[in-house]
Amino acid sequence: MIQTLEILIRSPAHRLALAIALLCIALQYAGLADSLRFDRAAIDSGQWWLLLTGNFVHLGANHLWMNLAGLALVVALVWQHFSATQWLLLTIISSLVVGVGLWLFNPEIQGYVGFSGTLHGLMMAGVLADLRSYPKSAGILLLLVTGKLLWEQIGGALPGSESVAGGLVVVDAHLYGAIAGAVLGVLLIAVARHDNDEQATA
User: Fold this and answer.
1) What pTM did the predictor assign?
2) 58, 67 in Cβ contact below 8 A?
């Protein structure tokens, strides 16, 4: 426990993860979910920030803590591969792509809340970065995440997920987040490799 706390204190990336979790908790228990959720009518009237903020509020406590458990899993498995700045960029871009994707391609969705779409983006980016260091385990995890996304697109939400979340699971949000995370993750990995190659030849 003490060692875990020391990691959180020393690592900027881990402090970011903690800050994201605390932000979600604070927004939820401050009763701001209704005012910050993705609301199509409000967005159409000019409240564009809801495209982003809807990802950080939740249906209720069960939904919140389920997503925070997912964040903890991402941190435990792949958080070491990017810096705090890179994870912040991945979080913001994945969240925006989820919001914009739902707004553009899912007109039937009038309201949306939850961090799960962003989580899929973070997981995809981290797993792709993990392939170089741990190709077997990362490959298995990539297959599992991809298989989950395919299942959701064909058969809908995983059994039991809606009852735990306390509402409809918008599976397209997971897809949009995963695509955003994968694309940005690949770009960040390519930039890092290019910088490393330049340093090696300098």
Assistant:
1) 0.94
2) yes
Cα distance between residue 199 and residue 186, in whole Å: 20
Sign for the CA dihedral angle at 57, 125, 69, 170 comes to: positive
Spatial separation of the C-alpha atoms in residues 187 and 144, rounded to whole Å: 22
**37 φψ region: left (φ > 0), alpha (ψ -120 to 50), beta (else):** beta
How does pLDDT run across 172-189, given as a tens digit for each residue?
999 999 999 999 999 999
Average pLDDT over residues 132-156: 96
Instruction: Determine which of 87-91, 155-159, 172-176 has the lowest per-residue pLDDT on average.
Output: 155-159
Instruction: Please name the residue that has the structure tokens 């249906």.
Output: 59
Burial class for 10, CB neighbours closer than 10 Å (0-12, 13-18, 19+) = exposed
The amino acid that residue 84 corresponds to is A
Instruction: Tell me the C-alpha to C-alpha distance, in Å, between residue 14 and each of 109, 112, 162, 181.
Output: 33, 27, 29, 18
Residue type, 18: L
